Amino acid sequence: MNNIQLSNDGSGQTHIFTSFPETHQDQPNYQNIDSEQTTSFLDENASTEKTYSIWQIEYYQKYFNINTTDFISRIIGSMVPSFGQNSLLNKIRPNPDLYGPFWITTTLICTIAIGGNIVSFIQNFGQNYTWQTDFHKVTSSAFTIVSYSVIIPAILYVIMRSRQARTEMEFIEILCIYGYSLAIYVPVSLLWLINVSLMQWILVIVAITLSGSVLFLTFWPAISQDQNRNIALSVMSVILILNALLGIGFMLFFFHYPSPGNKESITSSVAAITANNTRV
Amino acid sequence: MTNSGEDKMQFLNSAGNFSDLEGDLIAPNQSNSNFKPSTTLNMGSNQEIISTLDEPVSITISRDLKAVAYKLGHVFFPKQSTLLLKDWDLWGPLTLCVILSISLEGNYKVNSNAPEFASVFALISFGAIVVTINTKLLSGKISFFQSICVLGYCLLPLVIVAILNDLILFITGNASVISFGFRFILIVVSCFWSVFASTAFLAADTINLSDRKALATYPVFLFYFVISWLIILHTN
């Protein structure tokens, strides 16, 4: 309150401040009035941001505050494991978004359910058997993906919160990273339509390696802060094993059944899966 | 101690208001003297104000139907008009959604996993709501029902293709490769037409999405893609 009046009186000082804004950071004692004034303005900005309640849609706009180039660079960061400046955590750190996780999981549910249906459609095309869409695939893929991308970040956050004095990551950041780490499965699930068993296994191994290494590179610096080395290692290995199980589960459950809803074909497909497993 | 600043601001504002007030003070006097007879005449004639109560029901329905049909025409010629945004209605979307749900309804005689009426209806309506909320969250300047209206009206190409799809299936049967290819091409074209028409409204420059147009367009594409997927899977 006082500052504004003072600055109004000494208008020459504010003129100096606005003409050389970079000196303000370097010389904190140069003009106390100006620094106080800027902090008061910062407080005002913070108070205007807090006016939205949880029930207003504007409250959530801060989680959707990205543009197209940011989004693309984050997706690339989730597929290509990298260190330091280019790592996924650095890309999402200023403002973790929920746009990517939400639409990546939605896209993955669609591509996996649709891809699973296409595989059974191709194998039944032209036969007398009247092929029907299997909408249980949508339900089951939605259940798997949503539970993986929400429950595991929650558990991980609770573990990190309870084990460590200073939390390295916020919940929204873990959620964001887990959502983006699923992005690699979208192109892979489209390529799984090529129904060659060896090709599918190579693709699933590539996908697991890439997303697993991204998860490792982002979470290991935070998890390794744990004083008990064994617990840190076991948490990290559980994360990687769950990721691998998710990838293999997608492939076996959705892309290996020849025709859903037909008991004979299910038994034959189970036989095929076991044959595949033994081959690999 | 912001009083000095506020005083200045108030003085400036009030000075600005005085000029406005001058205009206002003159205007009502003129309007009172000049337009009083005309307003009473309007009230007396009863044609413009209470006209919808006296007219036959058929005229009311036909006028509303004409409005809906006129807006449907705009879907086929999305010439960057803001008609669907200006006076939105939910009759068109409701009708199109019901037609699509009926045409995609599965055959109950076979114990199938095909979608029922309710599931298609719920998918379309919830999908439209989610896409709308996404546009709002990307800080697009559009109201909730405007976006629902645009998404609903832009279902029109898909509805037409869904009906054509039923006709082709009725004529040729399920297992023909040629008919499948023809249906596939039709559905792809209509899906892209729907996306194109709806983005002409939803991603227009007035919505103020600047560098987020692609982010707002992708969910719209996904919405129409899933619906067209349901259409292509529909078998008799």
From TrEMBL, chain A:
Single annotated GO MF: small GTPase binding
Membrane-protein topology: Multi-pass membrane protein
Region feature (Disordered): 1-31
GO cellular component, one term: Golgi membrane
Main location: Golgi
Subcellular location field: Golgi apparatus membrane; Membrane
Protein keywords: Membrane, Transmembrane, Transmembrane helix
GO BP annotation list: vesicle-mediated transport
Keyword Transmembrane helix: yes
InterPro entries (UniProt xref): Yip1_dom, Yip5/YIPF1/YIPF2
Residues annotated as domain Yip1: 91-246
Transmembrane parts of this sequence: 98-122, 142-159, 171-194, 200-219, 231-255
UniProt record similarity statement: Belongs to the YIP1 family.
Protein name (record): Protein YIPF
Organism: Brachionus plicatilis (Marine rotifer)
Automatic annotation (TrEMBL), chain B:
Family matches, as Pfam families: Yip1
Calcium in keyword set: no
Protein name: Protein YIPF
A GO biological-process term: endoplasmic reticulum to Golgi vesicle-mediated transport
GO CC list: Golgi membrane; trans-Golgi network
Subcellular location: Golgi apparatus membrane; Membrane
Segments forming domain Yip1: 84-230
Chief location category: Golgi
Keywords, comma-separated and alphabetical: Membrane, Transmembrane, Transmembrane helix
Family membership noted in the UniProt record: Belongs to the YIP1 family.
Membrane topology of this protein: Multi-pass membrane protein
InterPro entries: Yip1/4-like, Yip1_dom
Annotated TM spans: 117-138, 150-171, 177-203, 215-233
